[in-house]
Every structure is written in C-alpha cells, then in structure tokens.
Amino acid sequence: MRHSPVADHHLSIHAGEPVRVSCHSNRVLSVRTRGEINLLPAGMSDDWVEDDASSSLELLLPAALVRAAAQDLGLDPDRAVLEPRFHFRDPQIEHIGWALEADARAGFPGGRLYRDSLGMALAIHLLGRHEAPAPPPGGLSQRQLRVVVEYIEEHLDRDLSLARLARVAGVSASHFKTLFKRSTGRPVHTYVVQQRVHRAATLLARGELPASQIALDTGFSHQSHMARCMRRVLGVTPGAVARSRASQLQ
Q1: Packing angle between helix 111-126 and helix 91-105, nearest 10 degrees?
Q2: What angle (nearest 5°) sits at the alpha carbon of residue 54, between those of residues 116 and 118?
C-alpha cells in the first residue's frame, strides 16, 4: 500500500484486530494493535505492506490549522513542524479520534463547533513538545463574557464555530477555550448545548411549535439529537416537557 503526499497531516489509528505490517520508510516489521497511531506530516509519503486484513480510522488535520494553533500559542509556525512517527500510543489522540468518528457516524450532531474544538485540541496536543506560553491568567473579562454569551444566545440556531466565538471575544481560538471554561466552569461546547436545551424546553412548554421545528430552531441537527441532549442535561424527554404543560392546562 502507498500513502501519497497530501497537503494535510495524516493520522491513522488502528481500529481492528492485530495486523502484521512492514513500513518501508523505517524498515519496521511489527504487529499493529488497536489504538496504535501512525503520523505522517503534510507532504510526506510512505509505503507499507500489511499481511492481514485491517481497518483503521484515518484523520486529516489541515496544515493551516496546525500553523494557526502554533501562532496562537506564540510559536513560530515555520519551526513548529510535526515529525513522522510510527506505531506509537497516545491516549489523548486516540480519545479525540474516537470522538470524531462517533460524531461522523451519528451524522455530525455536534456541529461545527464540536469538530472545531476537537481539531484545535488535536493540533495543540501535537504541538505540545514545544514550549508555549500559558493563556493569560484568569478568565474572560466581564465585557468579553457578556458579548460572547449574547452572541451565543442570538445565534443558537446557527452552526457556531470556535473561531467565530474567539473573534467575538477578541482572543485566539486556543486561548478562548481555556478562558471561557475558567469564566463559566464549563467547556464552550457544553455551555452551548445546555443553552440550546433550556431554550428548547421553554419552547416545548409553550406548545406553539412541533418538536421537530423546535429542534431546528435551537440548533440541533434533528429531533432525536435534541431528545438525547435534553435527557442528558435535564433528565427528561421532550415529550415529558410537553405533557407537563398539557397537564397544567387541564
């Protein structure tokens, strides 16, 4: 098999049964097991031979995202390069990979903000071997937090992005994640989901719109996605919220 050079960084996470593999570039003959990772930087090619059938999770990380993460961290993007690595383990990379796979299999219910957050986390983690300045102490200022919260409330029906919210706050995307959590005690994606759930519950209680429309109006990808999030956040189903209102009117 041959991996041709591409413009993105390529990570391959073995997802199946153990497989015997030989990589031509580093003359390694070994058995690859579930969770083992290969990292090929942008522009690099490689050849390998697999003696057994295999399956793997393939992730393409845009080189532009890694450069942006390096700039956000105060690194020289031209020097913050990724090195090729083969058959290594990294629990954080694996966790991010499986989370992205689960989101894709479910039809991307997490939205762009969820994927942006995971992609930025992956880029920052890969750059972690470089010394980087820590985010500013404390959290967002009261003004920054207010404008971000107001923006989220006004755009709950949109596919919010991490980069956009960071621009609203006037900070880098990598620092925004940390500063927002310091200010609210919650990751930004969790906060947005909770706000969508509370908005949806309010609309369901009014009984003026069908649940399918409320799901779309509050930024959920579909009605079942809204139901899963509502059970997780409030411990009740959309139907229970609607029935509660109906019983109060009787």
Answers
A1: 160
A2: 10
**Backbone φ, ψ for residue 185 (5° rounding):** 80, 5
Q: Give CATH for domain 191-249.
A: 1.10.10.60
In this prediction, residues 12-37 reach a mean pLDDT of 68
142-185 in CATH: which number?
Answer: 1.10.10
Helix (H) or strand (E) holding 197: helix 188-206
3-state secondary structure of 36: coil
Radius of gyration of the chain (CA): 22
pLDDT in tens, 110-149: 889 999 999 999 999 998 864 445 566 789 999 999 999 9
Please determine whether the domains at 142-185 and 191-249 fall in the same fold group of CATH. Answer: yes
Write down the pTM of the prediction: 0.69
- Residue boundaries of the structural domains of the chain: 2-126, 142-185, 191-249
Helix, coil or strand: residue 138: coil
Spatial distance between the Cα atoms of 147 and 165, rounded to a whole number of angstroms? 10
DSSP summary character for residue 27: T
